[in-house]
Amino acid sequence: MNGRQDPPAASSAGGTSTGPAETPRTRKRLGPSPAVAIAFLLPAALLLGIWVVYPIVYSFVRSLFGAQNFSEFVGLGNYISIFTDPGTLTTIRNNLIWVIVAPIIVTTLGLIFAVLTERIKWATAFKLIVFMPMAVSLMAAGVIFRLVYEQSPDKGLANAVLTTVADTFSSSQGYPAARPREGDQSPVAAQDGGVVTKQPVQAGQPVLIPIVGVKPEVMPSNAQTAKTPAGEGLSGVVWFDFTQGGGGRNGAVDGAEKGLPGMTVEAVQNGQVAATATTAEDGSFRFEGLAPGSYTVRLPKSNFEASYGGLQWLGPTLITPAIIGAFVWVWAGFAMVLLAAGLAAIPRDALEAARIDGATEWQVFRRITVPLLSPVLLVVFVTMIINTLKVFDLVFIIAPASVQPQANVVALEMWRVSFGGGNNQGLGSALAIFLLVLVLPFMIMNIRRFRRGES
């Protein structure tokens, strides 16, 4: 009995055990072991190395050599050529236009569509229609818009719309290459690109204006047999003074000759236009409400100019904006869907509180909706920048061969230099690395944005 007391034993009923401390070796592992995780990740890492890492490394090494093989080391010569060759500089300029214009338009339209679909009844159907182009491949979209931009209004939808609008506001029919019949016996003569009567005319005297040189393709389908109008007032007829197969009299309306509809006719007195009329389907015209007196009847120059045929969408001037239009058609639905999802996540309390405080819808949109949507807007905008830098299919399909140098972009130039006839693998590899350098910062920005959203 030395006063030493042993610690009481832990009660098995209600006491706590003070066994040995838990160590990392004794702690039970959750999930698969590192070996199992590596075994599952190895195939993906192997494919990533084969399809991504190896091509990047090989392209960089290949860009340091000449056109055909590894025998000619040129160092940074290919990269210098990118910024000194005029054709390549054009592609960089076009890519700059794409990066500035296309993402802004796509993001803006997507935001407008997303906001407006919250105010309409058939929002789902509208979203489906706008998003539908995403189901079409870029190559198919290029084929579609190649037809849309056809020069002929009979084939191209864009010019068909433009010419229809122009014809709605313009009553004159163009007859290019048409001219008055020459000769001393002709009652009319050419003047300042138009046609005028040689002698002043008065009411009650039908004015005959014979025209020749009308091409068959511009003769309107609704043209009828020419007739000389009868009755009071100043009237007349404009007709194609030509009988098919020969015969007929010059300067006289024969039975088989057709009138020229849609021509603008002016009655001129003392150098001023007193009245204007338009020829009917049989070429006849009549001036209404014209004061008595002598007049000179004139067909203005506009009658002998080609009718408006639309814009040259596939020409060197408009080719890049035309292709950007096709890009916007494809991607606007994508932007709308993402921004609509972002709008659905905005707290409605903030919007209603602003409206109760007297804010207008524009103020609510500008000061509340847009700031709260800024993360989604940034993701959409950056994604569109990456897509514009990689655009290839639309430019290759839509732009004709004659204007492809004016519409060229870096991705297409890379293919043309390497495989499209240039056979310069070194410069093509340099362009590939240059394109990667352009895309990489925006990809990193998107990845960081996604990580912030997850945290």
UniProtKB/TrEMBL annotation:
Record PROSITE patterns: ABC_TM1
Membrane topology type: Multi-pass membrane protein
Localisation: Cell membrane; Secreted
GO CC annotations, alphabetized: extracellular region; plasma membrane
UniProtKB keywords: Cell membrane, Membrane, Secreted, Signal, Transmembrane, Transmembrane helix, Transport
Lineage top rank: taxon: Bacteria
Transmembrane segments: 35-57, 96-116, 128-149, 326-347, 368-386, 427-447
Name of the protein: ABC transporter permease
Organism, scientific name: [Actinomadura] parvosata subsp. kistnae
